[in-house]
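TA notes, week 10

Several of you asked for a full example with nothing omitted. So below is the full record: structure tokens for the whole chain, then the designed sequence directly under it. When grading your own attempts, check the secondary structure regions first.
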């Protein structure tokens, strides 16, 4: 993966206006590792969320844009990144503009001052991966959580995946509505199911390709003695089986036939039961060869970190861009040995890493290796200058 390190970019400056708890912030950083420490509620995660908006989707909290505007602010917000890249400096901006009278607030996206149509355009300049505490229960939680986790992995290497997934959701909602309101309109259902089948196979194929590539990279680079055990991955679902065993055109035909056959059952259920929306990502603890959900809490956390590190390497390999890595409250529950190993692994990725933690002491060993910043409500200062 080192072949991609020269194309690593760095956020040199982050500016926020009326975003979450920040009325205004102008932050400059210089190192590949950035550590943000401060009390809970001080605004550490808000910084990571602001950066995450430069990836397609709704950011690491999956919040509505209106929720990101500062309370008691004007209702709009702006986020700007100045990037140092091997190809020169670029400025990316996004935010929520105040609505024109009688209209609705709208999102804006800009690259070097020019308006672009959507956050998908940012993929030419940045890729982003992240890990947040709410993912700690990923392996024990519902399949939907793991699908969203996987879709974010896919999105980091295929910026169009979100567009396809959203279109599939809309088509499924249309089918469910027709089944409920007008189930005898076969021509209408045929047309919708043709769209569902085309989009569903495309979404499943993208997931399968990412899982295959990630699994191959993990096996190629695994270290049995690593404190972050390697994972083995697979997809479970009827449509995933079709994609694995049939050419795409034949898989679409078969899926369309399954949809047609299942209309009475789906109408009774009030939803479409067969499709990518019913798939699951199965993860196993590689060294122990056990299902991830049966591993200890500590083992699951280490396994999750290992997956995110591998994903960052995959993104660099496939896109040629070392991704920004956002790690919220990452070091709090790691013993000193694992913490030191994590910091070493993060430095080897080649991309810029932003970490948060409540305790400054968690990052003490990074002195001289990272920008160490203290976060207080509405302001960020270097550790040594905060008094």
């Amino acid at each position: 993966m080192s072949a991609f390190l020269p194309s690593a970019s760095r956020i040199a400056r982050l500016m926020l206006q009326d975003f979450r708890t920040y009325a205004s912030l102008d932050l400059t950083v210089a190192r590949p590792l950035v550590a943000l420490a401060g009390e809970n509620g001080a605004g550490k995660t808000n910084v990571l969320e602001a950066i995450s908006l430069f990836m397609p989707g709704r950011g690491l909290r999956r919040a509505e844009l209106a929720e990101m505007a500062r309370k008691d602010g004007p209702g709009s917000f702006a986020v700007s990144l100045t990037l140092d890249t091997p190809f020169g400096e670029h400025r990316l901006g996004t935010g929520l503009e105040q609505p024109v009278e009688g209209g609705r607030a709208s999102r804006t996206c800009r690259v070097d001052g020019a308006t672009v149509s959507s956050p998908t355009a940012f993929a030419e300049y940045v890729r982003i991966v992240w890990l947040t505490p709410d993912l700690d229960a990923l392996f024990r939680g519902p399949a939907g959580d793991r699908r969203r986790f996987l879709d974010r992995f896919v999105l980091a290497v295929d910026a169009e995946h979100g567009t396809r997934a959203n279109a599939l959701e809309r088509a499924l909602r249309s089918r469910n509505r027709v089944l409920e309101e007008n189930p005898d309109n076969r021509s209408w259902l045929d047309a919708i199911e043709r769209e569902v089948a085309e989009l569903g196979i495309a979404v499943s194929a993208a997931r399968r390709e990412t899982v295959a590539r990630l699994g191959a990279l993990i096996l190629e680079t695994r270290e049995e003695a690593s404190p972050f055990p390697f994972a083995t991955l697979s997809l479970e679902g009827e449509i995933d089986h079709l994609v694995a065993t049939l050419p795409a055109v034949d898989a679409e035909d078969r899926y369309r036939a399954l949809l047609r056959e299942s209309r009475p059952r789906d109408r009774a259920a009030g939803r479409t039961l067969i499709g990518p929306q019913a798939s699951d990502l199965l993860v196993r603890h590689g060294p122990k060869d056990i299902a991830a959900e049966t591993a200890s809490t500590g083992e699951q956390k280490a396994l999750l970190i290992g997956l995110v590190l591998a994903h960052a390497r995959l993104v660099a390999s496939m896109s040629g861009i070392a991704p920004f890595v956002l790690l919220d409250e990452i070091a709090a529950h790691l013993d000193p040995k694992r913490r030191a190993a994590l910091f070493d692994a993060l430095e080897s990725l080649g991309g810029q890493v932003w970490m948060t933690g409540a305790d400054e002491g968690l990052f003490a060993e990074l002195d001289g290796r990272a920008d160490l910043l203290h976060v207080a409500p509405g302001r960020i200062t270097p550790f040594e200058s905060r008094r």
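Residues 1-6 have pLDDT under 50 and may be disordered. Use that as a sanity check on your answer.
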